[in-house]
Amino acid sequence: MTDGDQGIFASLPPIRELAIGDAATLDRTLREANEPFVVRGLVADWPIVRAGQESARRARDYIARHAQPKPFAVSVVNPRSGGRLFYDDAEGMNFQTAHAGLAQIFARIDADEGVPDTPPIYLASVNMQEFFIGLHEANHVDLGDRKPLASIWMGTRTRIAAHNDVADNLACVAVGERRFTLFPRDQFRNLYLGPVDDTPAGRPISMVDFHNPDFARFPRFREALAHAQVCVLGAGDALYIPTMWWHHVEGLAAFNVLVNYWWRDSPRWLTQPQDALSHAMLAIRDLPDDERRHWRDMFDHYVFAAGPDVTEHIPEHQRGVLATLTAESAERIRAVLARAFGR
Predict the structure, then answer these.
(1) Less CB within 10 Å around the terminal CB: N or C of the chain?
(2) Domain end point (choices 213, 243, 263)
(3) Are residues 179 and 240 in the same domain?
(4) What is the mean pLDDT of residues 191-203?
């Protein structure tokens, strides 16, 4: 580990490590896992890993050769931020987003290499198959019959606040070094989440600065730390993050590259749970107390419990969307919602 090791990270237990030597074992382990795990050297044979072992500039040259001639979104962070992408003191973020060709962005990183107090640069969640030619094919993990979204994350030293994702996640470090601090999904109350509609990257984030936690302001964060796990991944290592687990991610080297895979085991016709939460805020949260209690009971009955008593008294052919969802019945629900929002 490098900077920040004398803070909260030094006392946290490590994420368990597993030895996995082939695609079949990885597939089986992923299907059975409900907690995170690390696999050292899982992608050590990738060409991008070998290029990065020669030098960060060689890795950038390798990546740039595969780039499409289109603008990439890049975040340039306030140099006083310590690399933390976060809210600023006004009504915005402490970083600016611009668009440029990858060669131009990498030229800026080349020029800043070794220069103190330069603005951190971060390219987040770039679709590998949309923005590159052949990069994914030469550097990918065999995930069996899953159809994951493969993304690449590139940048200098950065800190990404704790957040979670709806999808399962296999994160593979290709260049540099990254530290992950993970929390079980039930720790969201103790992480002091920020806004749900105004976020740095679409998901609510923890408002706690992990490098300088203010326990007077965020006292329950101590409880979150009692459940935390940590790992530092080098080039070639991988980490599995189960759906909805909270993760704080740091790029520790002067240049870092991560390739990650997101997938969901649920049917593709299901929508995002976050959309339902947002709709519930719109429709239910500000109702009188007794009405909210009623709707909570309704949600328990139809959604969270959803036992046989919901439908056993209804003839099977009349159950409609109360039956197990199919692509067709899901589409009927979408149509109802579209009409409701169109009013």
Answers:
(1) C
(2) 263
(3) yes
(4) 93
